[in-house]
Amino acid sequence: MSKNFHAKWIEDPIYKSHFWFCYGDREDLKNFLLKKKYKKFKVDNIEFLNSSTVDGAYFTIKDDDYVWIQDVDLGVLVHELSHKHGATLVGRGMNFNDQTREAFAYYLEYCFNACLNFIKDSQKKDRVKKRLKNKFKVKKIKK
Fold it and tell me: Residues 82, 90: contact at Cβ < 8 Å?
């Protein structure tokens, strides 16, 4: 997997849900899924992995939910999280209506902030690694 692929297990203590949030190249996502010991045929059958026009996806393998975005695009992230939070709350017996609208909004906000904080943290770590690598780069001595 490339250094530009990031994944985090996000826990939700309120609705007792969880999901993998991943961002980066679709080939790296495919390799990540294969490392999770999913059978190759299941991974190969995920349509968007074979499409170059899809920028993000929400999907489930076994009992694990995944939210994946190819690039850090907040619009795509909100779109995919809308699928995730809708599936979670509807799965808990909540329909979207005037009485539950606020719960849906808060849950989307929770998921979005968890993903955004992970993006910020991983980008910060990437910058630090790059600086350290450049700082301790061994220079070749010319003969």
Answer: no
Look at residue 52 in the predicted model and tell me its pLDDT: 77
Give the phi and the psi of residue 37 in degrees, each rounded to 5.
Answer: 75, 25
Burial of 8 (0-12, 13-18, 19+ CB in 10 A): middle
pTM of the shown model: 0.82
Residue with tokens 């220079």: 139
Are 83 and 59 a contacting pair, CB within 8 Å?
Answer: no
Q: What is the pLDDT of residues 66-77, one digit of tens each?
A: 999 999 999 999
What is the C-alpha to C-alpha distance for residues 12 and 46, in angstroms, rounded to an integer? 25
For residue 66, give the 3-state DSSP assignment. Answer: strand
Q: Average pLDDT of the chain?
A: 86
Instruction: For helices 74-91 and 101-135, give the axis angle rounded to 10 degrees.
Output: 130
Is there a contact between 25 and 36 (Cβ–Cβ < 8 Å)? Answer: no
- Beta bridge pairs of residue 60: 65
Other C-beta atoms lying within 10 Å of the C-beta of residue 11:
9
| Amino acid occupying residue 34 | L
Three-state DSSP at 78 gives helix
